[in-house]
Amino acid sequence: MIFKSPYPDVAIPEVPVASFILENASRFSEKPALIEAATGRTLTYAELSDAVNRAAAGLASNGFQKGDVFAIHCLNCPEYAIAFLAVAMLGGVCTMVSPLFNETEITSQLRDSNAKYLLTDPQLADVALAAARALNLTEVFVLGEKVEGATSFCALMDNDGRVPAVEIDPRRDIVALPYSSGTTGLPKGVMLTHYNLVAMLRQMETADVLRSDDTTICVVPCYHMYGLHSVINLALRAGATTVTLRQFDLEKFLRALEKYEVNVVGVVPPIVLALAASPLVERFDLSKLEALHCGAAPLSSEVANACSTRLGVRVSYGYGMTELSPLSHLSYRNAEKHKPGSTGYCLPNTVCKIIDVETKVVLKPGEKGEVCVRGPQVMKGYLGQPEATAEMIDSEGWVHTGDIGYADEDGALFIVDRLKELIKYKGRQVAPAELEAVLLSHPAIADAAVIPSPDEKAGEVPIAFVVLKKSATPAEIIDFVAERVAAHKKIRRVEFVDEIPKSPAGKILRRLLVQRVREHVRRG
């Protein structure tokens, strides 16, 4: 059965995404568009439009051209939106780099994306500049005060020049290049077009996610499409006010919710858990808070209900992946229509089917299989990887998500398991293949496999099964990996085994290892 959206299809204009996002800015000219939580620094919609134009003119005067790739390596801040919109206006491509990355990881993404320009944060500048030097980037910009080896982003915007007219083909031209591991393997550049991102905004508008009189806060990271597009860009399109929090800290988050009277928040499961359980919550007035939109990783009904009861708020859900710009399903704004445990219903213009994992036969309501999605938000493909693209998107345009679930008679989607190998640590992606490559570089390790292990606070943590060829301790191996990857990718536990289970073709049989971990958890 093909499951359709409960919403009618919507018209999706074929226009550049920057002009679409800022289309209503003049109506809200004196209203705050972006507020930096830590300082209270505020940009009105008029000031935002001016800043975007100045940044675009400044980039153009520095040689930036259509198709050039601009990397953003920053913590959440108003300039994230300014940079993205300026690059989009010039027909460029933004690749968002995690601020948690080390020099090797940053260099890898910059090289693969063919980035020419980089914007970084002062506290991240050392690793960013090292990566930029290794690749001989055209120019590095830095927020705030000038850092040696980089140009001030403020100076870039001190430009009264004209923004050059650029012809953009919304269906063909890429505007965002986030990185995702998809269903398997190493991180890959996800090519999202102007049309993909405009479609997603129209779909979320129709689902009534955010309104012009709302105030939201961007606490999820902007290097993820969730933070940049589903929170900030959507809010700017709607005429809402967005508070930016550099990174999650529970007390700072709660203080910002109270101070700025935030009423709608996009969150990930660990934040919902903190709101449900932390005694800190009692110290703040959160009476203006109305709704939490939770995505990026599974959220248990028990935690959601505890949070909803404690704060008196609506908890809604979303489902998707970076390759879907980033959503395919959302729950209704009306909480009474939500079904406990469900991730919601197809967005407008989106269809879903559940197929048998082995036979690929389309299943009936209630039957469990792989979730497949089709719609205008489906990525153009993976950068430079046609084979990986073909594995993800079939000849009929269906995205094979790698998630196992079912839909009921009404089309409400329930996710129950995951075929894909990706580990979700607090909503952040961790690719097992990447960690396995690091493990195999250890002189004592003959073979290794990494899988997720359930964790109450993080959702999942990476654990490693290791075959030794000479003596080593779990602590030594954990430290070895920690020195070479971002903090959220660290191995949390090592188990020594005689061999790694593999198929005749040599593919790691992770399901056997996952089953072993689950049995261990059940035994306590």
Classified in CATH, the superfamily of the domain at 423-523 is ANL, C-terminal domain
DSSP helical segment count:
15
- Please give the CATH class of the domain at 423-523: Alpha Beta
Q: What helical percentage do the residues reach?
A: 25-40%
Draw up the topology in text.
Blueprint: E1 2-4, H1 17-21, E2 32-36, E3 42-44, H2 45-61, E4 69-73, H3 78-89, E5 93-96, H4 103-113, E6 117-120, H5 125-135, E7 139-142, E8 151-152, H6 153-157, E9 174-176, E10 179-180, E11 188-193, H7 194-206, E12 215-218, H8 225-238, E13 241-244, H9 250-259, E14 264-267, H10 269-277, E15 291-294, H11 301-311, E16 314-320, E17 327-330, E18 345-346, E19 351-355, E20 369-374, E21 381-382, H12 386-392, E22 399-407, E23 413-418, E24 423-425, E25 428-430, H13 432-440, E26 445-455, E27 459-468, H14 474-482, E28 493-496, H15 510-523
Parallel strand pairs: 2-13, 4-5, 4-6, 6-7, 7-8, 12-13, 12-14, 14-15, 15-16, 27-28
Antiparallel strand pairs: 1-19, 2-3, 9-11, 10-11, 11-21, 16-17, 17-18, 19-20, 20-22, 22-23, 24-25, 26-27
